[in-house]
Design goal:
By secondary structure, this protein is of the alpha/beta class. Helix content is 33%, strand content 20%. It has 2 domains: 197 residues, Rossmann fold; 216 residues, FAD/NAD(P)-binding domain. Bound molecules: NADP nicotinamide-adenine-dinucleotide phosphate.
């Protein structure tokens, strides 16, 4: 019998239900797909959508509507969702090998990059990813607390995550009320004493990682002035040459224009000041037993062999008193049991989505695939994950044709729920999630908000018991 036909469907397990997991499920099960495939999507949380739920800023509700696309995929007959199932403890690789022809890891990047400077781990110095998880009600982070008694905060890095964190710190209560920010974060931010937010870029305005809409948004905050000095907004000679040359990126040109306009503004005396700093690197986080200041060094740019403009420290330093620091210098993947890992990059080594025994090897691990940030690193926007997932699925389908995937003993749809039940795993189905989603939305509407999230796994499971229909289905 040929694999990938109605008689013998291809069975694929996808680990992770964020954008890349859903785009991979879509590519495998779309009506025009070249094979008949059954896909089970697993997530360690009871809730789907990965960073769309736990990462995208709550004041960017429109971006979150991308979940409508994922809902359509989940509603297909040949797609199932198993939430609250942890790969590595509830299900092992050998379990998957017994029940599927292939596994596709789409687990994202759950950790953060380190700066490697003294004081980095002082209380009051946090990874921005922790704050993001906290204000988004992610169960792993909801118990954290942040010193919002701080008057001055430094954010290190100028990517879009830094922009998100800056906005959330600078938003008024009224603005936050219109979002689905976690209720405890809403309350904590209502009492925030934050008045100055320093946003520190190690390179210049022409190399900023933020995108145009995000830097524009910072200039339109009802409760915050944006401040940048004309000297720092002005590109250095190397950057000016780049911007005037044929290879200049539109995004970079526009970013510089926006920052120049900010430099020309007179602050209106709004409650919060967002102070953008360029060509500055942190060298030390200072404090006795908690953060008291950050020491930064002035950088200059030089042209690296690759042609890229890189930062280099000068001798000029400066110390800024701050009581809270967010390190927003990028995410990093974490290793999974029985799966190769490329520690240098924090990714799973792969060739176009086929997992390799190690980075640089040409030997693939049969039946194992990756998509999204754990495949390529933490870059790009949500939509970037679509072509990325399609590329991986194409590799998988090539391997199916070549007979190079797993030959499971028990490839029946019933076997997995039976196995999970036998292990006492309370998995959450798509129907469960639809009920939970409805309950969160109802709770939100009652408060005039888009949604009021459940933020502990226990509360989610309890809520599900409460919303179960009398027939128990
Ligand atoms: P990112 O875009 O890679 O930005 C990381 C920032 O950290 C850069 O400014 C980088 O500077 C800086 N950095 C790295 N190492 C540093 C060091 N040792 N010292 C000082 N600065 C350092 O990462 P991200 O902000 O975490 O975002 C991840 C991805 O998600 C990005 O693709 C982003 O666009 C996307 N995202 C999008 C949105 C949105 O569309 N609204 C929202 C959030 C995230 P260099 O450039 O000099 O390396």
């Amino acid at each position: 019998m040929e694999l990938g036909t109605p008689e013998q469907p291809l069975r694929v397990a996808i680990i992770g239900s964020g954008p890349s997991g859903f785009y991979a499920a879509d590519a495998l099960t779309a009506r025009n797909a070249t094979v008949t495939a059954h896909v089970d999507i697993f997530d360690r949380l009871p809730t789907p959508f990965g960073l769309v739920r736990g990462g995208v800023a709550p004041d960017h509700q429109k971006i979150k509507s991308v979940t409508k696309v994922y809902e359509k995929v989940a509603n297909r007959d040949n797609v199932r969702f198993f939430g609250h199932v942890n790969y590595g403890s509830d299900l092992s690789l050998s379990d998957l090998q017994q029940h599927y022809h292939a596994v596709l890891f789409a687990v994202g990047s759950a950790s953060d990059k380190k700066l490697g400077i003294p004081g980095e781990d002082l209380p009051g110095s946090h990874a921005a990813t922790e704050f993001v998880g906290w204000y988004n009600g992610h169960p792993d982070y909801r118990k954290l607390s942040f010193n919002l008694e701080a008057e001055s905060v430094a954010i290190i890095g100028i990517g879009n995550v830094a922009m998100d964190v800056t906005r959330i710190l600078a938003r008024t209560q009224e603005e936050l009320l219109a979002t689905d920010i976690a209720d405890y974060a809403l309350e904590a931010l209502a009492n925030s004493k934050v008045r100055r937010i320093y946003v520190l870029g190690r390179r210049g305005p022409a190399q900023a990682a933020f995108t145009n809409p995000e830097i524009k948004e910072l200039g339109e905050m009802p409760g915050a002035d944006i401040i940048v000095t004309p000297e720092e907004a002005e590109p250095d000679p190397l950057s000016a040459a780049y911007l005037g040359g044929p290879g200049a990126d539109r995004k970079d040109i526009k970013n510089v224009e926006i920052l120049r306009e900010y430099a020309a503004r007179t602050p209106e005396g709004k409650p919060v000041q967002i102070i953008m700093r360029f060509l500055t690197s942190p060298v030390e986080i200072i404090g006795e037993d908690r953060v008291e200041a950050i020491k930064i060094v002035k950088n200059e740019l030089y042209q690296a062999e690759s042609g890229e403009l890189r930062p280099r420290a000068t001798k000029e330093t400066e110390t800024i008193p701050v009581q809270l620091i967010f390190r927003s210098v990028g995410y990093r993947g974490i290793p999974l049991p029985d799966v190769p890992f490329y520690d240098f990059q924090g990714t799973i080594p792969n060739d176009r989505g086929r997992v390799l025994v190690e980075q640089g090897s040409d030997q693939v691990v049969s039946g194992m695939y990756v998509a999204g940030w754990i495949k390529r690193g933490p870059t790009g926007i949500i939509g970037t994950n679509k072509p990325d997932a399609v590329e991986t699925v194409n590799m998988l389908l090539e391997d199916v044709s070549a007979g190079a995937v797993w030959s499971p003993d028990a490839p029946t749809p019933e076997a997995i729920p039976a196995l999970l039940e036998s292990r006492g795993v309370r998995y959450v189905t798509w129907e469960d999630w639809v009920r939970l989603d409805g309950s969160e939305t109802e709770r939100g509407i009652a408060l005039g908000r888009p949604r009021l999230k459940y933020t502990t796994i226990e509360d989610m499971l309890t809520a599900l018991e409460g919303t179960r229909s009398p027939s128990g289905d």
